[in-house]
Amino acid sequence: MSEELKELRVSNEARNDAEELRRRLAEEGYLFFKRLQDPDKLRALRREMLTVMQQGGWLVAGTDPMDGIANLDARCTEGDLGYTDVYHEVYKLESFHRSAHWPEVMETVGTIMGRPVMPHPQKIARLWFPQFTEHTTPIHQDFVHFQGNFETLTCWAPVGDCPIELGGLAVLPGSHKVNQVLDHHFSLGAGSLCIDTEEAAKTHAELDIAWHSTDYEIGDTLIFPSLTIHKALPNYTEDQLRVSLDNRYQAIGDPIADHMLQPHLSLTKKFTWEEVYQGWQTDDLQYYWRQLDNPVVPRDTSYAEKGFAEAVKLARQGDPRAYLALKRIIRRDPNSPAGRTAQQVLVEMGVADEMTPVSV
Residue 214: CB partners within 8 Å, gap ≥ 6? Predict the structure, then answer.
């Protein structure tokens, strides 16, 4: 392991001790379990997911999908329409959605919360190309993206072994104790928002900038609340695609944000539950949340709006990362207010008709 990273604390021995799990979560802001999920079920899911990705051109043709050998010419990331096209095909897999409901996960989250729980309808997979490190998921708190309530838990698990160089998740233990949503700024990477931890540490003495991670094995699972500061590590492999599950869980009866009732990345490109469910063999998980009593609250768009405003400002200062972000917005929705503003800025800067390369 890198000298900059410390090992995650394993909590397997406390898995059935609700009081101890809650104590650790309150103190450290995360719980890490070795092989919490069945490796065989995850291997079967991995084959299904990667087969769809290979059919979409993301893996080298003729290779075993289980090896995850990326086609580097197809590199893309969240925010690119090409990414969304293939991602939504993966998203249609019934097995992918069912994995968020596996008993070993539901029971563990239920033990932690001490109340009946539900997975968010918006299931999420993270599919990250190698040699594309500029687009690594930045330092952030999940609340800015998923909202609803602070007690919501993220459950992250690699779909396959995920050593440090493949780019697993890293957390700042105890960072949830800031007990507030910190300032987030424009960034590339999933979510497009990033915390400046050095800046945050100046006003939050309790914030210890000591990242913890591990060489994850298939079945390992990391659980943390929505205020814990975390990030993805870069995928430094030559040709390996990193695949992970990144789902949210909350107590039934707590508020949920309205956008979490929609398929993931349906804001990037229209995508409905009817399209997701087409071809499913069972219907027990279809619209399951409609039978549960969760107050629905509107999405707070101020976080995204601030990030966009910063991207515009940086673009006017000649920042190539901002150019790329604005061009993605134009490709997705050129006639939206953000799309029109992005076009105006790029015309002003004389880069509207050319792709500005970003170092990867």
Answer: 1, 7, 8, 32, 164, 168, 220
Distances in whole angstroms, Cα of residue 121 to Cα of each of 4, 85, 106, 262, 279: 36, 20, 14, 7, 18
Question: Which DSSP helix (H) or strand (E) runs through 155?
Answer: strand 153-158
Write down the pLDDT at residue 352.
79
Q: Decide: 48 and 245 in contact? Cβ < 8 Å.
A: no
Please, what's the b/e burial string for 151-176 (b: 16 or more CB within 10 A of its CB; e: otherwise)? ebbbbbbbbbebbbbbbbbbbbbbbb
User: First-to-last CA distance in the chain?
Assistant: 23
Low-confidence ranges of the chain (pLDDT < 50): 1-2, 355-360
Q: Which residue has tokens 């590339």?
A: 188
- Residue 162 DSSP code: B
Torsion angles phi and psi, residue 62, rounded to 5: 85, -10
Q: How far is CA 28 from CA 89, 96, 241, in A?
A: 37, 30, 30
C-alpha 280/C-alpha 277 separation (Å) is 5
Task: Label each residue of 264-291 as H, E or C.
Answer: CCCCCCCCCHHHHHCCCCCCCCCCHHHH
Q: Each residue of 40-95: pLDDT tens digit?
A: 999 999 999 999 999 999 999 999 999 999 999 999 999 899 999 999 999 999 99
| CA dist., res. 274 & res. 271, Å (int) | 8
